[in-house]
Amino acid sequence: MASYNIRIDSGGNANPATLDCKPGDKITWTNDYSAELTEFTLPSCVAPQNSPAPLAAAATTQQYTVNSGAKGRFDYTYGWPSPKRDTRGGTIDVS
Prior knowledge:
Helices cover 0% and strands 46% of the residues. By secondary structure, it is mainly beta. The strands form two sheets. Strands 2-1-4-7-6 form a five-stranded mixed β-sheet, with no helix packed on it. The radius of gyration is 12 Å and the shape is elongated. The two termini are 13 Å apart.
């Protein structure tokens, strides 16, 4: 099992935009954007399915585990209301 961190960078983009991983791997997200993320929809391949929103600037989520038996591409989205409302996302690719 590997551990991964997806960083929401200062431009508001997920880095990496697509994360390749395997069932049982652990994932966290870190908000390096200047605003609090008020929306966060997790990919359906991870547990628990408790949204980390709101996620303050510079904060890191709890650790999520990729479900056993998960296979394929799973999208997630996150967003913020200011300075200009936006919603973005990324993909978890489970092999």
